[in-house]
Structures are given as C-alpha cells and as structure tokens.
Amino acid sequence: MTETDKEQGPRPDLVINGVGSAAGGIYGKVLIDGVGKVGGSLTARLFKANGQIRVKGGVKSREMEVNGILNLDGPLEISTLKLDGILHVDGSLTGESCVLNGLVTAKGDCELEEFRGVGGFTIEGLLSAGHIDIRLAGAGKAHEIGVESLKIRQEDSGIWNRLLGGIIPKLRPALTARVIEGDNLDLEYTAADIVRGGRVIIGAGCSVGLVEYRDRLTVHPEARIGREVKTGD
Amino acid sequence: MEDDLISKKELLDLTGISYGQLYRWKRKRLIPEEWFIRKSTFTGQETFFPRMLIKARIQNILSMKDDLSLDELASKLSDTEGFSEIRLSEQAIIERNIVTSVAMSAYGSAVRSEEGLYSFEQLLCLYTADTLLARGDMSLEEGRLLLRTLEKHAGALAGKPGELFFVRKMGVALFLLAPSPAELYFDEGVRLVAKVALGDLIEQLKGRLT
Fold first, then answer.
1. pLDDT of B155 strictly over 80
2. B20: nearest CA in chain A?
3. B5 vs A181, residue with greater confidence
4. Percent of the residues in chain B that have a pLDDT greater than 90, as a whole number
5. For residue A96, what is the nearest residue in chain B, using CA coordinates?
6. Higher pLDDT, B124 or A135
7. DSSP letter for each residue of A42-110
8. What is residue A1's predicted lDDT score, i.e. its pLDDT?
9. DSSP string of B52-115?
10. What is the superkingdom listed in this entry's lineage (chain A) (predicted)?
11. What is the residue-averaged pLDDT of chain B?
C-alpha cells in the first residue's frame, strides 16, 4: 500500500482480514474484518469495518458502515454512517445522516442532517441536526442541542437493562443536556436546564429548569418543570 | 461593547426566523462560527451575535434563499473573491442606489481608477464616507480626509476586524483606524463623533451589491 496516492486515477483499496495494520492515506475502499489498526488519517469513498478497529487519526469517507468497535483519534466526516456497535470519535462528527444502533461518543461537536436509531450517545460539544429521532437504550448526553425537530423516546428495555440501569447510571436510558433549542421538541425522560422551542412537548420523566416556547407547550403530568415562559408575542 | 451584541432570543424575535433555521444555517456555514459569542448572564450561559453583522447577514440570506439552494448560498456568502473582482461604473452605482449621488459627485473622482470604474475597496471607501455623511456627523470637506485615511491605511487592516473612529477636538477632525477590539481613551476636550466597525460596513455593502 502506498502511503498517499494523490493521483486522480483509480485509488488503491485497503483490505485487512484477520489481524493487521496499515498506513493512513487516500483509498478507494477500506474493508476491515477482524482486528485492524491504521497508523494515520484516512480518506476513502467507502469504509466498511467489522470487528475492532483503531485509526490513529481522522476519517473522511462518503459511506461508512461499522459493525463492532471503531476508535478514531481524530474527527470524522461522512455522508452516511450506519453504526451497529460502538464508535468513539476524538473530535467532531460531521455528515448528512447517521443511523445508530449502539453507542456513539464524540469529543467535539456533532453536526448531522438526520440522526436516528436506537442506543445512546455522548456529544461533548453541540449536537446540531435537522432531525433527531432516537430511542434511548443507554444514556444520551450532549452539552447543547440545536435542531429543527427532536424526538426522544425510551426503548422498551428488558428486565436486565432495567435492573442494571438502577445500579449503573451510564446505562439508564435518559437524555441530559444543558440547553435544548429547536422548532419541534418532543421529549421524554430528559433532564435539561433550559428548553427553548416553537412547539414543545415535555413528556414523562422529564425534569426541566426553564421552558421557553413560542407556539405551544404540552406537559405530561409526571414531568417536572421549574418555570415556563411564552415568548415571541 | 454591550449594545453591539444581540442575544439569540432577541435576534429570533426581531427577524422572525426559528431556532431550527439558525442551526441549519450554521451547519451550512452561512453564519460563521466566530459570530456565536458565549457569555454568562444571570439566566446561565447565553449566545450572542455581533448585532450589525448578523442582522445584515440574515437579511441577505432571507432575500436570496428563495432563488438559491443553501449550498450555493454558502459559497456565495463566503466568497469574498467574487466581490473583489467587482468593477462598477459610476452610473451603475447610482442606479443601484449603493452610494448617494451627493457622495459620488463629491468624492467619486478622487477614488475611482483610471478607467472610471470602481473596485470593491474603492466602493467601500465611498460607502463609508456616504454612511457618515448620511448620519450628519461629517462635513463634505472632512470626508476627503476620511477617504485619504482609508485609501492609505485600510489595506493594512484587510482581513482583520477593524474599527474607524471619528473624533473632533476644537473643531479639528481626526480619523483613526484601529484593529478591534480596541479601547481608546481621549483627553477631555475630545468628542467621539462616530465609531463604526468596518466589518459591518463590508457586510452591508455586500448586501447592497447582491
């Protein structure tokens, strides 16, 4: 494999089966099955990983599919991401759409047009998206959330999950954020300091310090709200 | 500094856009990251924007978004190159109401290039003078001094945020250009007549050109 291939022609593919390591660079397809290690940042058209993979740098790829565990030491830029498993990004995550089935963590901001699926997430910066529709099976955490529409539900969890959730807070399926802002907010099991939006639904299990809404506010009887303010008149 | 900023809530009330639109435009890089200024307030942390810049930018986006896709818009707004290529004749400038005919007849000949056309920088000089004239802060004669100042030194501030200070002491006019944020302190006989951020003017001028 060449380290970098800046020529326009056909790019080389990177294939790892079993245990192996490779250098970063520009590839056509990256296919890793097994345990793989990539020494530097990657650019690819397609990135498909099954198993446990570590990239010592960022990844840029049009399409990405992960089954297993993927650790990135840099930012991730994708068009579409399909994740079954665990993804850790040491930087920002930007892209068009992400279908989640598992856990995603990002040290920076997360910018997506569409973010949906089942699982949990930890975004240490701003989670900004067009539409978010997540059924939480683990903790959902973001410093701030800014969206057009946001829908948070609790995944029907089994008895084991419910038991473990009581002991280990990380497994409790609830959303925590400092500020949530958006046009259409439909929340359940959410703890936030401030929620600001157009049409806001505060569902069961929510605890919000301050709600500011423009058009409509619906509050579930089991939700706790410190203060509610209607704005924009 | 306080009144130069606008809070996010105030901005949404003023322009009628929604949170979703604001975040979408930020994702599409229509609004630069640096304009999101975080500050602590008594209600916790809030986001503020430079008032003039963001208002002009949102006006620009709203007026163009029906004709262009957001991606096209992003490249257009970040594309300063497109503006630096611009060459306009005197007639076109007056017709498009970019600069008033008063300012044009007074300063036009001093600013324009030999072919009689105006570049973006030259337009900016005229526009600055025009703005101050329109506010009634500055006389026509003082405007010439301003133009000389801008012509000579605006280049040094290119690409950086800068501010123009216009002060008077005992009837004598002075112009100062400084990179912002600059805190200037004057002796007591000095009156600060006007303070304008060059970034605001550039943004407004871009709005008029598109």
1. no
2. A148
3. A181
4. 3
5. B27
6. A135
7. EEEEEEEEEEEEEESS-EEEEEEEEEEEEEESS-EEEEEEEEEEEEEESS-EE-SEEEEEEEEEESS-E
8. 42
9. HHHHHHHHHHHHHTTTS-HHHHHHHHH-HHHHHT--EEHHHHHHTTSS-HHHHHHHHHHHS-TT
10. Bacteria
11. 80
Contacts of B69 (CB under 8 A, 6+ apart): none
User: What pLDDT score was predicted for residue B1?
Assistant: 43
The domain limits of chain B are 2-78, 82-209
Q: How far is B78 from chain A (nearest CA, A)?
A: 19
Q: Three-class SS of residue B174?
A: strand
**CATH: 2.30.29, 2.30.30, 1.10.1660, 2.20.28. Which one for B2-78?**
1.10.1660
Contact A188, A153 (CB under 8 A): yes
Q: What integer is the mean pLDDT of B85-99? A: 77
Instruction: Determine which of B15, B18, B39 to mutate to test the interface with A (most A C-beta atoms within 10 Å).
Output: B18
Q: Is A130 on the interface with B (CB under 8 A)?
A: yes
Contacts 24+ apart (CB under 8 A), A158-162: A161/A137
Q: What is the ipTM of this complex?
A: 0.84
Q: List residues of B whose CB lies inside 8 A of any A CB.
A: 9, 12-13, 18-24, 26-27, 43-45
CA pair distance A6, A221, nearest whole angstrom: 60
**How far does the CA of residue A68 sit from the closest CA of chain B (Å)?**
29
pLDDT band at B58 (very low <50, low <70, confident <90, very high): confident
Chain A residues with beta carbon closer than 8 angstroms to that of B27: 111, 113, 128, 130
Phi and psi torsions of B68, nearest 5°: -120, 155
**Is it the case that residue A2 has pLDDT exceeding 50?**
no
Within 149-188 of A, beta carbons closer than 8 Å to B belong to 149, 178-179, 181-184
Distance CA A200, CA A150 (A): 10
